[in-house]
Amino acid sequence: MSTGRLTIDLDAIAANWRALDAMSAPEVQTAAVVKADGYGLGAGKVARALAAAGARRFFVAVAEEGWALREALGPGPEIGVFSGHMPGDTDMIHDLGLVPMLNSIEQMTRHFEALPGHPFGVQLDTGMNRLGMEPAEWVAVRDLVLSLGPRLLMSHLACADEPDHEMNRRQLDAFIEVTEGCDVPRSLAATGGIQLGPEYHFDLTRPGVGLYGGLPFEEARAVVELELPVIQVREIAAGESIGYGNTFVAERPTRVATVSGGYADGLSRHLSNHGVLFHEDTPCPILGRVSMDLIGVEVSHLNADPKFLTMLGRHQGVDDIAEAAGTIGYEVLTQLGPRYARRYARGRE
């Protein structure tokens, strides 16, 4: 096999959902965010594992993502759409039974005219200035919208991964102010917000990255393992270089393994010359630039030439890779490429 092997532990995803669910009171519903194809891990298989664990409500970013999810889950579970009701979405929302989170008066008009009586929610902006109705807009239409029975009033925290950030309290206060007395289920917390405590939980939480083993859920079980096959091993002499641009020049005789993987597979060029892979418990430094399909890795210190090296595993998770690449675990997960041979593991609990 010449492609990397990506193993996805569905039981770990289910365990992470149960752990996040246990952080809120029994009367608080815990949903699951499976946008971006289940954070790059396969929305259908991920959602089925979460449904088996007890999740009954799911969220995607756009209506198009609802197709695979509805096919995987069947007609029962509710699927919310963060982007709301966009032009061209009407048939999908109707046929798939999606619940758009309406973000503006324009979206409300579109939804109420095209699909009268169809379920909907409302997203409110509490300071992130990304999606949602501004407070003044909401005040203008609040009574009318509430009379139509929204399924949910929600907002999103900008700084929940920083527990002491003053923005968290400011958004909480703003959310309470615009929703108090509405008698509609409310939702503010995603993974980080869940860990801020009960006052952020309201009626429904929406964990996302924590389900997949990412920060800020530090207690999460690891979900992914990525092994890259070694295509060739060579000995280079002192003074010889490796890869594009001669960015690594050996100071001594060095044994180099060329592994199958690169930025086309979601492995950032920013790992060049300072990322590591592992052989069992031993770190093996990346030498030279990460290229589209190949990476050079030092194996001089190993007792034998390896057949595979591990990029993601027990010694190095998605957030470790993210730190080395100057990004975040979300990006590492969602960029894992389609060339990997994917295997879904069960029965590890």
Protein model, in words:
There is one protein chain. The chain is an alpha/beta fold and 349 residues long. The chain folds into two domains: 31-212, Alanine racemase (TIM Barrel, Alpha-Beta Barrel); 224-345, Lyase, Ornithine Decarboxylase, Chain A, domain 1 (Beta Barrel). Helices cover 28% and strands 23% of the residues. The protein has helices spanning 10-21, 35-39, 43-53, 66-73, 90-96, 105-114, 135-147, 166-179, 191-194, 318-325, 329-334, and strands at 5-9, 29-30, 32-33, 57-60, 78-81, 98-102, 121-123, 153-154, 186-187, 204-205, 224-236, 241-242, 248-249, 254-260, 276-279, 282-287, 294-298, 308-312, 341-345. The strands form four sheets. Strands 1, 11, 14, 15, 16, 17, 18 and 19 form an eight-stranded mixed beta sheet that branches. Strands 3-4-5-6-7-8-9 form a seven-stranded parallel beta sheet. The longest helix is centred in the middle third of the chain and has 14 residues, at 166-179. It is elongated and about 75 Å long. The model has no long low-confidence stretch (mean pLDDT 96).
